[in-house]
């Protein structure tokens, strides 16, 4: 139940509209579609830690902490 609540909260956060284009309409004249804030989301599969010695350098998934938190709740 807690995992479902967490996933629903993440889903609802991704639906929050961005207020900046509405407030600063002069700067966003060409942008007519609705924009949403950047919200964290659960990765589709388990994120892997990239090798720091690889070139080009790869960075870890920025939402890995969500995957870890949900796995901790499940266990």
Keywords:
mainly alpha
Task: Give an overview of the whole structure.
- By secondary structure, the protein is mainly α.
- It has one domain (2-47, 54-74).
- Helices cover 36% and strands 0% of the residues.
- The protein is flat and about 45 Å long.
- The model has no long low-confidence stretch (mean pLDDT 85).
Quick take:
The chain is built from three helices and no strands. With 75 residues, it is an all-alpha fold.
Overall mean pLDDT score? 85
The N- and C-terminal alpha carbons lie at a distance of: 13 Å
DSSP summary, beta strand count: 0
Indicate the overall shape: flat
What is the total domain count?
1
Task: Give the SSE order as H and E letters.
Answer: HHH
SSE blueprint and pairings:
Elements: H1 2-13, H2 20-23, H3 64-74
């Amino acid at each position: 139940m807690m995992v479902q609540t967490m996933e629903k909260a993440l889903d609802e956060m991704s639906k929050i509209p961005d207020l900046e284009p509405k407030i600063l309409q002069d700067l966003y004249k060409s942008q007519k579609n609705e924009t949403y804030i950047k919200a964290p989301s659960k990765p589709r599969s388990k994120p892997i830690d990239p090798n720091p010695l690889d070139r080009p350098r790869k960075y870890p998934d920025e939402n890995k902490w969500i995957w870890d938190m949900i796995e901790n709740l499940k266990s």
